[in-house]
DUF397 domain-containing protein (Lentzea kristufekii), 53 residues
Amino acid sequence: MAEWRKSTHSANASACVEVAVGIGIRDSKAPAAHVEVGTAAWTAFLAGVTREG
């Protein structure tokens, strides 16, 4: 079973984006569906947002 996590910066715990390593991204309001994101794509995304920081 996937371990879905919410951002620690999420002010409203019921309306946020969740991620699961190796699985993807989903909307906490619609947890039945998710977008698959590979490890390389997720790493590139994190590197990009960290640089913009």
